[in-house]
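Troubleshooting log. The previous structure file for this entry was overwritten by mistake, so regenerating from the original sequence record. Sequence copied from the archived sheet and checked twice against the printout by T.R.
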Amino acid sequence: MRSTELPKTALGHIRVLDLTRVLAGPWCAQNLADLGAEVIKVERPGSGDDTRSWGPPYLKDQDGQATSEAAYYLTANRGKLAITVDIATPEGQQIIRDLAAKSDVVLENYKVGQLKKYGLDYESLKQIKPDLVYCSITGFGQDGPYAHRAGYDFIVQGMGGFMSLTGERDDLPGGGPQKAGVAIADLMTGMYASIAVLAALNHRERTGEGQYIDMALLDVQVAMLANMNMNFLTTGQSPKRWGNAHANIVPYQTFATADGHIIVAAGNDSQYRKFVTIGGKPELADDERFATNPARVRHRDILVPVLADMVRTKTKQEWITALEEAGVPCGPINQLHEVFDDPQVKARNMEINMPHPAAGEVKLVASPMRLSETPVQYQNPPPMLGQHTAQTLASVLGYSEQQITALSGQGII
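Regenerated output below.
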């Protein structure tokens, strides 16, 4: 644990050794960093985290020229110290062991068994740090017939059932399975891993025991289907895709306006009546085919095209203003420039700026965690490759300048 004086944070006493790359592991590590942990990100010399090159777009420097930092990398690496170590070398492995001995948590997302050959697996490291919390993140977990497969978010979204529920109905234009717009299996695995690490740290604080955490993308993807899982388990019937519509409520879906799209969620007959009255079609509330929700569900294929034509007669903002005033649940489908211009998003300070060594300043998305007594601390911007190698080896491990220079000359760091 760290003994230096720190701001009041939830995890200011914790050091995390982050051996992960891409998204699930780095997302977990960034959460821990936001909560005050010292996170040391270990990368390959010369190339680093794969996502550093996942562009364009790339962060621009103060002269407007592209840097080597892809926007994707900036997503999940705020708050960390970055060092480069070649763990394929005996010297690099010793550096990792020395850092693990002075850390509270190790995060890794290598293939099953890959770190064991370097002596950096949990069983090896707990010999030198018995109370270590060690979290492995893989596609399919440490056991089972798929354990040695590489795990990719897109594939897991399909295998785990998410894409069977997402996308337009098969009988409509554009029907078919659809992945999410962001890597939800990765992101949710990072979130579950964050919770698991905090639980393990709490257990260690009470008992002195470290432990091993086995996180799998497929496990998480299956678990997060929530009510859809239970719909299947209670009936034996696989749920169908409904696109932006609802299986049991009409209208509860998206509509195209004159200049964009809105969501209308009319959960009862009164709200439906207000909706069609605002649209100049009050007779649609008196028609026996549409007067009640069960009737609307039965006749959705007749009603929805009529509603769609009605909604196209007004702009997005005209609909939002009128429906909100009438108490009909609704909302816009915003593009990201509209999201970050939204007064509520602005009031919650969801866009932050941090100083950056190459760009001068970098715009980032704030953490949504709001703690009254131990608030999130934005300690460092996403670091440049190897930015803190010398500093970390000197301050944490006590390496001399001569040792650091020699290791650098050999390409080990």
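The mean pLDDT is 95. Archived copy saved in two places this time.
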